[in-house]
Design a protein that fits this description.
289 residues, mainly alpha, 15 helices
Length: 289
């Protein structure tokens, strides 16, 4: 008896490709490109256009100006302090929320988003009310020779508050998805806490951690509202790059302000490139697990 061919038993099913109509695709792609050109590419191009309006020599002089250099230094110092602290706090918060069960865990997870909800200006005012020289605690700090508001520590604290959620928010979903199986297996085999963290947890979250640190750096560099309130706008002392740009612009020194602003744009573009690289590595790493 002849047996039927496999193709006769299970004939191939012709699947019709389902997609949106071509006119809809063209409309959506066109709107996206139009929005990108109008609200991203064109403004950024105008910044560089205005920055070089008086020529390369004027641009270099604006960048080399002492107040600009001090603003760049203060911005980089703030980022160098804030990002490692936020990385430490972010890992600690993500570890506590994803690995332990305790009362108020859901509330703590929700409160992590508080800096996103509070206006940066309000955050700055809160620190002025807490640490200002006219408050009891601020007055006591002043007697000890410690100045927080209108100095670098105040700028660091305000930036720390505003950028805190970035690392934690990247790590919490990642650590929840990875679960605790590997850590518990290592614990069963006798591994210590730091050994588990260094050899299992940290390698699994490293790309998410770096991704969060990149986002944190970008926000710290460009933060204006909270820093503006606590800085006092002292030229050469408490002005970060965004504050220096605002001062130059308010003095009608437009070309110099755009020249300094181009530094922020350059740093933002660098951040986007590094972020895209991290995102790519993060997705590859996630697909391997």
């Amino acid at each position: 008896m002849l047996k039927p061919e496999p193709s006769q038993v299970n004939p191939p099913v012709l699947r019709k490709k389902i997609s949106d109509p071509v006119p809809v695709q063209i409309l959506l792609i066109g709107l996206t490109l139009l929005f990108f050109i109008g609200f991203v590419f064109l403004p950024l191009g105008l910044v560089f256009s205005q920055a070089f309006q008086k020529g390369w020599e004027f641009y270099v002089e604006a960048i080399k100006e002492p107040y600009t250099i001090e603003a760049v230094k203060l911005t980089l110092i703030t980022v160098a302090i804030v990002v490692p602290l936020n990385a430490f706090f972010g890992v600690s918060a993500a570890w506590a929320i994803t690995k332990f069960s305790f009362p108020g865990k859901a509330a703590l997870k929700t409160l992590l988003d508080l800096p996103f909800a509070v206006s940066p200006v309000i955050a700055g005012l809160i620190f002025v009310l807490l640490l200002g020289s006219r408050t009891p605690f601020g007055s006591w700090l002043g007697e000890q020779g410690i100045k927080i508001i209108f100095s670098t520590p105040g700028i660091v604290i305000a930036t720390l508050f505003v950028t805190f959620p970035f690392v934690a928010r990247e790590l919490i979903p990642l650590m929840e998805a990875q679960g605790r199986d590997e850590e518990e297996a290592a614990l069963t085999l006798g591994a210590k806490g730091w050994q588990i963290f260094g050899k299992i947890t940290l390698p699994n979250i490293r790309w998410g951690l770096l991704y969060g640190m990149i986002l944190c750096s970008a926000r710290a560099i460009g933060e204006f509202g909270a820093v503006s309130v606590v800085s006092g706008h002292i030229r050469g002392q408490t002005n970060t790059i965004p504050l220096h740009v605002e001062i130059l612009y308010s003095e009608y020194n437009f070309t110099a302000s755009f020249a300094v602003a181009s530094l922020l744009v350059f740093l933002a573009l660098t951040t986007v490139i590094v972020k895209a690289f991290m995102e790519n590595r993060f997705q590859k790493n996630s697909s391997q697990h």
